[in-house]
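testing teh design pipeline on a random one, pls ignore if ur not involved
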């Protein structure tokens, strides 16, 4: 077969499928807009096409380009077939209803119309459910779920081990000293603050020795205040320079007028000599 014939065959197949698809889509849209939507709500009919022919093409494209794993591909392929079947069913229903109204055949009974209404509702429900299943069966999502299940099992086993009285006693022996040091430190700081309030800045601090030999130095009241100022300086990002033990330098103020010390000499040196005698 020549290349020209192949191109013509592909073109003919495309025209055949495309033409019939457009015909079925128009019949489905007419059925939905005539029987399932209000006169002023025609947009719902176009949206419904996502559950029939348009949905079939979308699911087929998803299966070929997005689906990973057997479950996702199965969902996409199954929904493509279901949507295509729904397109054909509703197109046939519209042809029967239109022919009945034109007198070509007996009019469609209400019970028969009810069946196609249920079919349309089922298509909406299946497409929504398939979308959730497609995301739920994503390989990465399934791997994360399995990891969480393993973590939950390990956590449950760890708590069961901790319920053992021997394990609890071991935890108490290891953690009690740490908790006790923290409590004593808080109590000592409270006492230091209260002592500074009652005794002024002259409180000299204290030292606490634990049973294991570890000591805690509680600063004096005035040092505690200095530490608070240092903490504020560090929090707001500036440097605070202080010299706790330095005495302020006192500079003498200059006199308003200079004092000049002069030696006074008498104009009569002989008289001065006589006074000295």
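output:
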């Amino acid at each position: 077969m020549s290349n020209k014939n192949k191109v013509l065959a592909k073109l003919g197949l495309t025209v055949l499928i495309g033409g019939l698809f457009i015909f079925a889509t128009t019949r489905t849209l007419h059925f939905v807009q005539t029987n399932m939507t209000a006169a002023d709500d025609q947009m719902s009919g176009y949206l419904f096409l996502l559950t029939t022919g348009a949905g079939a093409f979308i699911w087929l494209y998803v299966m070929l380009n997005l689906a990973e794993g057997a479950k996702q591909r199965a969902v996409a392929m199954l929904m493509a077939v279901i949507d295509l079947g729904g397109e054909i069913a509703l197109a046939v229903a519209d042809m029967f209803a239109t022919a009945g109204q034109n007198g070509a055949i007996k009019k469609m009974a209400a019970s028969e119309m009810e069946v196609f209404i249920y079919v349309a509702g089922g298509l909406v429900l299946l497409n929504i459910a398939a979308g959730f299943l497609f995301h739920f069966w994503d390989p990465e999502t399934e791997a994360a779920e399995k990891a969480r299940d393993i973590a939950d099992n390990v956590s449950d086993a760890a708590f069961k081990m901790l319920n053992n009285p021997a394990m609890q006693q071991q935890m108490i022996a290891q953690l009690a000293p740490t908790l006790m040091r923290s409590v004593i430190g808080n109590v000592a700081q409270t006492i230091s603050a209260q002592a500074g309030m009652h005794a002024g800045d002259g409180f000299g601090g204290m030292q606490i020795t634990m049973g294991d030999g570890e000591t805690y130095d509680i600063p004096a009241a005035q040092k505690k205040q200095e530490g608070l100022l240092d903490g504020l300086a560090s929090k707001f990002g500036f440097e605070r320079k202080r010299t706790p033990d330095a005495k302020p330098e006192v500079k003498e103020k200059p006199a308003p007028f200079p004092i000049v010390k002069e030696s006074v000499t008498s104009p009569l040196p002989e008289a001065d000599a006589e006074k000295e005698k």
